[in-house]
Design goal:
By secondary structure, the protein is mostly beta strands. Helix content is 10%, strand content 47%. It is built from one helix and eleven strands. The strands form three sheets. The chain has a six-stranded antiparallel β-sheet, with helices on one face. Strands 7-6-9 form a three-stranded antiparallel β-sheet, with no helix packed on it. Strands 4-11 form a two-stranded antiparallel sheet. It is globular and about 45 Å long. InterPro entries: Cupin_2, RmlC-like_jellyroll, RmlC_Cupin_sf.
């Protein structure tokens, strides 16, 4: 999984040469809204009209995020802390330096910060059709 995150990070770095497009919109699944830090439209021969979005998710001490889905492929990387997640029907634990992949349209029941005194931070990459939301409420 770390290899997937590194490949996507390398892809992002290659597209930054023009300039990163910052989006002021936030995602409200935690107390601290996620901030979009990078978005780039991709128009290569193989990836027509695809967009990469990179966000930082901050999860407060002891907080559990709300249930949601990601309609497009999702790769995450734990920047700080340790979290417990329930997605794809299983519970997973990830610590700083771990990467993970979420299958599109699977219910992500929540992410819990396992530390009671420090924030957990995740760097999350999405790639999908231009303008398609990267997060939606769980059905």
């Amino acid at each position: 999984m770390k290899k997937i995150a590194l490949i996507i990070l390398a892809m992002c770095a290659g597209f930054v040469t023009a300039h990163a497009q910052h989006d002021s919109k936030s995602v409200n699944v935690t107390k601290t809204p996620a901030k979009v830090i990078f978005k780039q439209l991709i128009n290569t021969t193989d990836l027509k009209n695809q967009e990469i979005t990179v966000i930082v998710v901050t999860i407060a001490p002891g907080e559990v995020s709300g249930a949601h889905i990601h309609p497009i492929p999702t790769v995450g990387y734990v920047l700080e802390g340790e979290v417990e997640m329930n997605f794809n029907g299983k519970t997973h634990r990830f610590k700083q330096g771990d990467a993970f992949y979420e299958v599109p349209n699977q219910i992500h029941k929540g992410t819990k910060n396992l530390n009671s005194t420090k924030d957990a931070k995740l760097l999350v990459y999405f790639i999908g059709p231009k303008g398609k939301p990267f997060i939606a409420p769980a059905h």
